[in-house]
Design goal:
- By secondary structure, the chain is an all-alpha fold.
- It is built from four helices and no strands.
- The longest helix is centred in the C-terminal third of the chain and has 37 residues.
- The chain is globular and about 25 Å long.
- The chain starts with a helix and ends with a helix.
């Protein structure tokens, strides 16, 4: 969430960041809505021009990274299993 703060000025207090990140919304658009609401803004009044970079950052940092970590985790478990079997 640091990039949302540094690049776009959406700097939430730590407790609000933790609340959003502990149970992230299902997709990047919903994540952006949660950030905007935490900032006291109405998501429906934000222009697409302002919203687009927020969605891109959320997609890259929250959603793609978690998919990447899950994929890596599965790969390391598979590699560990294979090494035990002598492959």
């Amino acid at each position: 969430m640091g990039e949302l703060c540094v690049k776009l000025g959406y700097c939430l207090p730590a407790n609000e960041q933790d609340a959003i990140l502990s149970k992230p919304p299902l997709d990047a658009d919903a994540f952006v809505d949660a950030v905007l609401i935490a900032e006291g803004r109405d998501p429906y009044l934000i222009s697409k021009l302002e919203r687009r970079p927020m969605v891109e950052i959320a997609t890259r940092l929250v959603y793609n990274d978690s998919e990447h970590r899950q994929s890596q985790s599965r790969s390391s478990v598979t590699a560990e299993h294979s090494s035990r079997r002598g492959f």
